[in-house]
């Protein structure tokens, strides 16, 4: 059975959303690979970046369900400016 899912990556340069069809039992990693996203966004490193489904962290080997939205998250960094202090 074929399922419809989407793969999303909030690239710093341009957000990408790909609608895909995958076989039932497809994992998060398989869906990302099958979507072709890794060819377009060469900065993605699945060994280092977290992934999720609808905003909840998940593992790459998690099986997907019909309609799932796979998300690849950017590494979060915080840059302090002169107005930031920890004395609050």
From TrEMBL:
Instruction: Please provide an example of a Pfam family that matches this protein in its UniProt record.
Output: Ub-RnfH
This protein's source sits in the domain of life called Bacteria
The record's section on InterPro entries has: Mopterin_synth/thiamin_S_b, RnfH, RnfH_sf
Q: Which PANTHER family match?
A: UPF0125 PROTEIN RATB
What the record says about family reads: Belongs to the UPF0125 (RnfH) family.
State the protein's name: UPF0125 protein LX59_00332
